[in-house]
Design goal:
Helix content is 66%, strand content 0%. By secondary structure, it is an all-alpha fold. It is elongated.
């Protein structure tokens, strides 16, 4: 059977699939081979026509960038196997890259929402290609990317065994981030007040020395 030209597929030329008749009225025995063969050949011809319709339908659903890789495929099964092989190899490479991203992604200067969103995106992509990560491991991946300012939160969690779900950890991290921001604001305010106080004392001391010098003069 010759291969279909994968680069010239018209969706308007596709015919609807019709039910394939697989039931044979003549059962093969030692006396009816020719009659049985004729019946089977007719069924095979019908199947080949159906297969070509399915082949065209598959090719019409594939983008122009991938079609050249399918040139020479003569059956729907060949197209399906080739596409599956192409994307399974891509998935293998993507799996290693995504696992590396998962291990190396750190919160850094991102907000907690941004960080958690990126982690979740990697989890979801891994799940889409068939690599499911247990919830307990997802929690550890999230916690491992946090800075030392989160140690008071992370250390107790890592010592516990399956006490929290991922949604609960997410809520607790967002709350902890708010507390860290509040503490930083308070510390910044205290530093500014201390600096202003020292500046005021220095100004008063200098004013006093100037007054004595004028008085002695």
């Amino acid at each position: 059977m010759r291969g279909v030209d994968a680069t010239h597929i018209s969706t308007t030329s596709l015919k609807p699939l019709t039910p394939l008749k697989l039931e044979l009225t003549v059962k093969l025995d030692h006396n009816n081979f020719l009659l049985w063969k004729q019946q089977v050949q007719a069924a095979i011809k019908d199947w080949e026509q159906q297969d070509q319709i399915l082949l065209c339908w598959l090719l019409s659903s594939i983008s122009q960038g991938i079609l050249p890789e399918l040139v020479g495929c003569s059956t729907a099964s060949e197209v399906w196997s080739t596409v599956e092989r192409i994307f399974s190899s891509h998935s293998g490479a993507n799996l290693m890259q995504l696992k590396l991203q998962l291990q190396t992604l750190k919160k850094g200067g991102m907000t907690m929402t941004e960080y958690l969103t990126k982690k979740k995106s990697i989890f979801d992509t891994l799940a889409h290609i068939g690599y499911l990560i247990p919830e307990e491991d997802r929690i550890m991946y999230v916690l491992s990317g946090l800075g030392s300012e989160y140690d008071p939160f992370v250390i107790p969690i890592t010592l516990m065994k399956s006490c929290y779900s991922m949604p609960e950890i997410t809520a607790l991290l967002l709350t902890h981030e708010v507390r860290i921001d509040q503490n930083m604001q308070v510390e910044s305010l205290n530093v500014n007040m201390a600096v202003n106080k020292r500046g005021g004392n220095s100004f008063q001391a200098n004013s006093g020395r100037g007054h004595n010098q004028n008085f002695n003069y």
